[in-house]
Amino acid sequence: MTAIDVTGARTTEAADVITGARERIDALDDRIIGLIQERMAVSAVIQEARITSGGRRVNLSREMEILSHYSEALGKPGTSLAMTLLELCRGRI
């Protein structure tokens, strides 16, 4: 299978550009996944401290701040992304 077949490009030059860009995206995705895992660990520390002190696992006003931040930065899809991050970090409520 050629690079043209794999990328859907119609020229070798375009296939080379796409292949390089995909490698960059894969590297970015690996970094994003690592950052999400780090965020999950930090969130677990916060939840543990909150619960140990007698508080609730989730702070809804803080979650609203996060939703707003993502929405302002990324639009409506940002809200969905933030919801997914919050679910990953605290589980479903």
Can you walk me through this structure?
This is Chorismate mutase. The protein has helices spanning 3-7, 12-52, 60-74, 76-90. The protein is mostly helical. The protein folds into 2 domains: 1-55; 58-93, no CATH class. Helix 2 (12-52) packs across helix 4. It is elongated, with a radius of gyration of 19 Å.
Q: Which properties best describe this structure?
A:
93 residues, mainly alpha, 2 domains, 82% helix, 0% strand
Please specify the SSE layout and strand pairing.
Blueprint: H1 3-7, H2 12-52, H3 60-74, H4 76-90
The total strand number stands at 0
- The proportion of residues in beta strands is under 5%
- Mean pLDDT metric: 93
Specify the oligomeric state.
single chain
Major sheet characteristics: none
Q: Helix proportion of residues, in percent?
A: over 70%
InterPro entries: Chorismate_II_sf, Chorismate_mutase_highGC-bac, CM_dom_sf, CM_II_prokaryot
GO molecular function: chorismate mutase activity
Keywords: Isomerase
Enzyme class: isomerase
Structure in a nutshell:
By secondary structure, the protein is mainly α. Helix content is 82%, strand content 0%.
